[in-house]
Write a structure and sequence with these properties.
Layout (H helix, E strand, L loop, with lengths): L1 H17 L10 H7 L4 E3 L15 E2 L1 H6 L7 E2 L4 E4 L14 E2 L2 E6 L5 E8 L6 E8 L5 H7 L3 H12 L2 E8 L12 H5 L15 E8 L2 H9 L13 H10 L1 H4 L5 E8 L24 E2 L2 E2 L10 H10 L2 E7 L7 H4 L4 E4 L7 H14 L1 E5 L6 E7 L11 E3 L7 E10 L6 E7 L6 E7 L19 E4 L2 E4 L3 E2 L5 E2 L5 H6 L13 E4 L2 E4 L22 E2 L2 E2 L7 E4 L2 E4 L3 E2 L5 E2 L6 E2 L2 E2 L4 E4 L2 E4 L21 H8 L8 H4 L3 E6 L7 E4 L5 E8 L6 E6 L10 H48 L22
Parallel strand pairs: 6-21, 8-9, 8-11, 11-14, 14-15, 38-41
Antiparallel strand pairs: 1-2, 1-3, 4-6, 5-7, 7-19, 9-10, 12-13, 16-18, 16-20, 17-19, 20-21, 22-23, 24-25, 26-27, 28-29, 30-31, 32-33, 34-35, 36-37, 39-40, 40-41
GO molecular function: amyloid-beta binding; integrin binding; metal ion binding; protein kinase binding
Keywords: Calcium, Cell adhesion, Cell membrane, Disulfide bond, EGF-like domain, Glycoprotein, Integrin, Magnesium, Membrane, Metal-binding, Repeat, Signal, Transmembrane, Transmembrane helix
Family: Belongs to the integrin beta chain family.
């Protein structure tokens, strides 16, 4: 039933995909195949009509058959599923649990392919169990019991699987504050009881690699002693990371890998290292030196996400054996993990491990490697609850010898060269390899010689012509000559737009238009017209079946007596009529309703809230007073105004200055139509009076005389002030002469006598 159900689902999906072909820009068969998984190509030579675009060859297979394409002419690549021959088992190799081991998929982009993966739990499949124990001081009693369980645990696992190995490791925490007391004496002996054996503080140490020797396990564990630290959380994540990545040191084989973590406390996580100034994140690499974790005090703790990823990569299934108070949440975060509650002294650890092993191995979770976004993988199964596709396949209660079947559906969204990835059940090292290639090219087996269908100027490629250099066209009929291809194609572009408006082919510089979807044709110089896209009324074009008009190049041409964008109205102007004509001659009457123009509104275009009277109207001066710019052709230039001159005007709308500088006062009353007014002009203009020449001349002379008189008075005043100053000084000197008896102006006479005979040289 499950296989029939799967077959029907695949068939329905293929049918649905085949019925869709959302073709985009398609010129060749390859373009068609890549444009959608439901697209097919017709390679029949005469499938396309003259002038029809090659994209018409691309459609669903059903549509191509309906249009006359022969069955042999339809190219519709499908997916290929190739099961690679399984490799024979080598002597001593583990039994095979997965079939097939390798497949090859040749996929069409967007078309899913489903195949089956069979999983059957084999008898005697080996088990590797690594026991990782917390050796902090609180686990003292537990260590004593673990020292005795080696043979018991190995015997029990061997009984179940027939092939088991066991190993041992231990951990405490980083040897830094605040995790551990860093006093030298405390580092060497961190235990509080000085009478019992105690080993120095450490992070993680690998004690025993995986072995079948239970006695060796017991002896090595017997040599272990308890240690100690300060804070309750332990460094268990550090230890788990090293156990997962140190594959060679631990000795992990091709087996079911189990990691038992025994602890009675919580764990430090990523970021806690900052408390000890550790800032470098965990690098997920093996760092064991002499079986001890060498980067314990240098790297931060790993995150739970890092732990989960590494355990999954290495197919390790963790079993958390913890005390009742510390029942961990880790198993909810890590797939394929189990939790068991330890007794106070860990005496039930063997039962916990056996029960967890049975639960883990009976749960089969199918998963794949990380993949790029363009590849998706979905799973269904024949198990209960596995009918719905999901990111992972899951089956519960799969006992040894039981076979389960998973349906794996792979989809590739785009063309790729090749891609490989692994699919397998978590916790098992056995995987199936999936190799993917895509089918993105057409295989038409055409001749490489010139073909008569292409006029001998090209060869046929999947039904269409591939022209030789210097030729183009649907049948290579156009020779380029002196013009290159770009120049010819430019002639087919309107206003540098799309070639032939995207509705035709440019052949030798002229557009050959396509057919429309309804069987009509595009037409016009640039294929810009068709008769199928006009205005509609009541969802019918140009009044449709009522035959009131015809669609011509995107516009309705109405029959006589009809009008409107869709010819849906009887021509009438009854409701548009006024005493001043249809719509006051300010609009058109369409479908018996006024369509106003130039800002006019109202049922009959009577008002215009945004219009203003044109007061700066030169025609008023011309009509009323015979002056102004239009005085020579007044009757012709101003026939839109009717003017009347009046002696009295109670109020006026406009006050405008004319050519002579006078103010004209007038009113303007709007008439029907646009820019038509009835103007009443006041006969008397407000003109400024001329200048008084006599007053101007008289005033000027008076001003000159006044200015001259003022200047004379100023000069006279200056001279008078100077004379007054000299007179006062004279009067002062005269008074001084009367008191001293001498005239200050008088000077005594002087006498000079000279002997003519006297010579100064003797």
């Amino acid at each position: 039933f499950f296989q029939v159900h799967t077959f029907l689902l695949n068939a329905l999906h293929s049918f649905y995909m085949e019925e869709q072909c959302l073709k985009a820009s398609v010129n060749t068969c390859g373009d068609c195949i890549k444009s959608g998984s439901g697209c097919a190509w017709c390679k029949d030579l005469n499938f396309t009509k003259a002038g029809e675009q090659e994209a018409a060859r691309c459609n669903t297979a059903a549509m191509l058959r309906d249009k006359g394409c022969s069955s042999n002419g339809i190219i519709n690549p499908k997916n290929d599923f190739i099961k690679t021959k399984d490799k024979p088992l080598a002597p001593g190799a583990n039994p095979v649990q997965i079939q097939p081991q390798e497949v090859q998929l040749n996929l069409r982009p967007g078309l899913p392919q489903t195949f089956q993966l069979h999983f059957k739990r084999a008898i005697g499949y080996p088990v590797d169990l690594y026991y990782l124990m917390d050796l902090s001081y609180s686990m003292k009693d537990d260590l004593e019991n673990v020292k005795q369980l080696g043979n018991n645990l190995l015997t029990e696992l061997t009984r179940i699987t027939g092939n088991a190995r066991i190993g041992f490791g231990s951990f405490v925490d980083k040897t830094l504050l605040p995790y551990t007391d860093t006093n030298e004496a405390k580092l060497q002996r961190p235990c509080s009881d000085k009478s019992e054996p105690c080993q120095p503080a450490f992070g993680f140490q690998h004690v025993l690699s995986l072995t079948k020797d239970g006695t060796k396990f017991r002896d090595m564990v017997a040599k272990q002693h308890i240690s100690g630290n300060l804070d309750p959380p332990e460094g268990s994540l550090d230890a788990i990371m090293q156990v997962a990545v140190c594959v060679k040191d631990i000795g992990w084989g091709n087996s079911t890998r189990l990691l038992v973590l025994a602890t009675d406390d919580g764990f430090h996580m990523a970021g806690d290292g900052k408390l000890a100034a550790i800032l470098e994140p965990n690098k997920e690499t093996c760092e064991l030196v002499k079986n001890k974790y060498s980067k314990s005090n240098l790297w931060d703790y790993p995150s739970v996400g890092q732990i989960a990823r590494k355990l999954e990569e290495q197919n390790i299934q963790p079993i958390f054996a913890v005390t009742k108070k510390m029942e961990t949440e880790l198993s909810k975060l890590i797939p394929k993990s189990a939790v068991g509650v330890l007794s106070e002294d860990s005496s039930n650890v063997v039962k916990i491990i056996v029960d967890a092993y049975n639960n883990l191995t009976s749960e089969v979770i199918l998963a794949h490697e990380a993949l790029p976004d363009f590849i998706s993988v979905k799973y269904t199964s024949d198990c209960k609850g596995g009918e719905s596709p999901s990111e992972r396949g899951k089956c519960d209660n799969v006992n040894i010898g039981k076979e389960v079947i998973f349906n794996v559906t792979v989809t590739v969204d785009r063309c790729i060269t090749s891609q490989s990835f692994l699919i397998g059940p978590l916790g098992f090292s056995e995987k199936m390899r999936v190799n993917i290639r895509t089918r993105c090219e057409c295989e038409c087996d055409d001749s490489n010689q010139p073909h008569p269908h292409c006029g001998g100027n090209g060869k046929v490629v999947c039904g269409s012509c591939s022209c030789d250099p210097g030729f183009l066209g649907q049948r290579c009929e156009c020779k380029l000559g002196q013009k290159d291809e770009a120049s010819l194609k430019a002639q087919c572009r309107k206003d540098n737009g799309t070639e032939c408006e995207g509705k035709g082919d440019c052949l030798c510089g002229r557009c050959q238009c396509y057919s429309t979807d309804s069987g009509g044709n595009f037409y016009g110089e640039f294929c810009e017209c068709d008769d199928e896209h006009c205005e509609k009324a009541n969802n019918t074009q140009c009044a449709g079946d009522l035959c009131h008009g015809k669609c011509k190049c995107g516009k309705c041409e109405c029959d006589q007596g009809y009008e409107g964008p869709a010819c849906d109205c009887v021509k009438s102007d009854k409701d548009c009529m006024t005493d001043e004509g249809v719509c006051h001659e300010r609009g058109k009457c369409e479908c018996n309703v006024c369509k106003c123009e130039r800002g006019y509104s109202g049922a009959k275009c009577k008002t215009c809230s945004s219009c203003q009277r044109p007061c700066k109207e030169s025609c008023v001066e011309c009509l009323a007073f015979g002056t102004g710019p239009f005085e020579k052709n007044c009757s012709k230039a101003c026939n839109h105004l009717k003017q009347e001159t009046v002696e009295r005007l109670l109020k006026y709308d406009c006050r405008v200055r004319d050519k002579e500088g006078c103010w004209m006062l007038f009113t303007m009353t709007e008439q029907r139509g646009f820019d038509k007014y009835y103007v009443k002009v006041l006969q008397a203009r407000e003109c400024p009076e001329g200048p008084n020449i006599a007053a101007i001349v008289g005033g000027s002379l008076a001003a000159v005389a006044l200015i001259g008189l003022l200047i004379l008075l100023i000069i006279k005043g200056v001279l008078y002030a100077s004379d007054l100053r000299e007179w006062k000084r004279f009067e002062k000197d005269r008074k001084h002469e009367k008191t001293s008896g001498t005239n200050p102006l008088f000077q005594n006479a002087t006498t000079t006598i000279q002997n003519p005979t006297f010579s100064g040289d003797s």
